[in-house]
Specification:
Chain A is mainly β and about 425 residues long. Chain A contains 2 helices and 34 strands. In chain A, a hairpin with a 7-residue loop joins strand 14 and strand 15. The chains are: A mainly beta (about 425), B mainly beta (about 60).
Chain lengths: ~425, ~60
């Protein structure tokens, strides 16, 4: 079964994915991470900015206007970033052990080192009106939190603090997610475990507490974790998972969202750079999308798409067998108040995806490719003679598509199917 | 006024009025695989149903 550069219509019919339009004409550095930030300010008018970790710099763009402006230079190249927003500032960290976390208010000409003596974290999320951080090289199992309602107070006793999560157990914290009033802590990527942080304050009757959740499954990267409906989904070294199914079935492979693709997941991805995996919930199409570097490459160009409108969900790939826009980073951002899908490429361009015109940059072709398994109609021992067939399609224009059929080990035979005109059967 | 959710341009319901194309096939097989491709810039494709007719010949030990 193959379904490349494809998504599904509601009755399951496969359709070619939309095209891609370039947003910035002048390349910036390799877009390792992109974030859609909204600043509310105090004047009743919100401001939209995109923030990117590009090569060795931090860049920003106003409302997808097409021009990147530098906010900081001289960073380590090609680290994995993490973004969060709280108190009307964007907090950005990366997996660099040299660069320190940054903050930006949306108006300043440059970012600032995050104040309050923060640890040099690589993962940060907002949870219960505090910043929570992890991924500190010197304390890989330690979870840090700020004082209430602050982003820059990491030290006030009895308000800011830290929690150790099974220190020195062979793993490090790989991800955090605020979910249903709890903080979910992912450790990996060897033994793998998931933990819950309950409570609402450092002290008192509802004090923060660590509750072990499960072992054997965990997230491989912070950016692979996101919410779908009432659930969290994430990528692990072995597949794609939902937190709800993991809670019920643990590491039982039948419960993996990627159960139909386990071999593909193991053999077709570059697991040495799996920690760069990124994902988004593209709700406009009901797709959970992750982007991976395929085997032999370090560029994230292979999209794995899970259509959660179906039960069980349906998988497809983009950019697997033939090119599509490489998605070194992914973002869902608003354009004209619509939530649209964007990819940041390793060559420094931001693209809007899923456009009506089936082309990249108005002219570039990509291939929709759908293939069934071999079908034996009940028995491979019975020889059959092919007679004829009928294909129902939704005509899209006065042009063709190609249908091929391969009999056993024979050379594939093809039929050119015209989409033009009316119903040929009357 | 009738309520219409579908839009043939947007394909809200995944289609609308389908076009059914008949085609001849030839040759014997034990197993068969179908593939659909559209590789031309600015050209779309959306398929919904495939009906396939064959006649069983019978058990065979021939190499195929």
């Amino acid at each position: 079964m193959l379904s490349d550069n494809c998504y599904y219509e509601l009755d399951g019919g496969p359709r070619k994915i939309g095209g891609a339009d370039k947003i910035n004409e002048t390349a910036t550095g390799s877009l390792n991470g992109i974030y859609d930030a909204w600043f509310q300010g105090g004047a009743g008018s919100e401001t939209q900015k995109q923030v990117a970790y590009a090569g060795t710099t931090i860049q920003n763009m106003s409302a997808l206007g097409g021009t990147w402006t530098s906010l900081k230079t001289g960073l380590e190249a090609d680290k994995i970033p993490c973004f969060e927003m709280m108190n009307d500032v964007v907090i950005m960290a990366s997996t660099s052990t040299v660069d320190v976390p940054q903050s930006w208010d949306g108006g300043a000409a440059s970012t600032s080192d995050l104040g309050g003596s923060p640890p040099n974290f690589s993962i940060v999320v907002e949870h219960r009106n505090r910043l929570w951080a992890a991924g500190v090289a010197s304390n890989p199992s330690r979870l840090y939190y700020t004082a209430l309602l602050t982003t820059n107070d990491w030290t006030t006793p009895s308000d800011a603090g830290s929690i150790d999560i099974s220190p020195s157990d062979g793993d490090r914290i790989t991800g955090l997610a605020s979910h249903k009033n709890e903080l979910i802590v992912f450790k990996g990527t060897n033994k793998q475990s998931i933990h819950r942080i309950t409570g609402s304050a450092p002290t008192g009757t509802d004090a923060f507490a660590r509750v072990p959740f499960i072992t054997g499954v965990s997230a491989v990267s912070q950016l692979s974790i996101f919410r779908v409906g009432d659930d969290l989904v994430f990528a692990s070294p072995r597949g794609i998972h939902s937190l709800a199914a993991t809670a019920s079935f643990g590491d039982y492979v039948e419960a993996f969202l990627s159960r139909p693709l386990l071999t593909f997941y193991q053999d077709k991805l570059n697991h040495n750079v799996l920690n760069g995996c990124q994902g988004v919930n593209y709700q406009s199409r009901g797709l959970a999308i992750w982007t991976f570097a395929p085997s032999g490459s370090t560029t994230r160009s292979l999209y794995m798409c899970y259509d959660y409108r179906f039960s069980p969900g349906r998988w497809s790939t983009w950019g697997y067998q033939t090119r599509y826009v490489n998605a070194h980073s992914l973002m869902v951002a608003q354009t004209g108040r619509k939530h649209r899908l964007y990819a940041g490429t390793s060559t420094g361009f931001l693209y809007e995806l899923d456009k009506t015109t089936r082309a990249v940059d108005t002219t570039g072709a990509y291939t929709w490719n759908v293939m069934t398994p071999y079908l034996n109609f009940g028995s491979s021992g019975i020889m059959k003679n092919a007679e004829d067939g009928f294909l129902s399609l939704q005509p899209k224009g006065a042009y063709n598509l190609t249908m091929g059929y391969q009999r056993d080990t024979q050379t594939q035979q093809t039929v050119t199917v015209s989409q033009a005109g009316g119903n040929t059967l009357g | 006024m009738a309520f219409t959710l579908n839009d043939t341009t947007l394909g809200v319901l995944g289609g609308g009025q389908f076009k059914t194309v008949a085609f001849d096939m030839a040759g014997s097989f034990r197993e068969i695989q179908f593939q659909f491709t559209q590789a031309v810039s600015s050209q779309d494709a959306e398929i919904h149903f495939l009906e396939f007719h064959y006649l069983p010949v019978g058990p065979s030990h021939e190499d195929v």
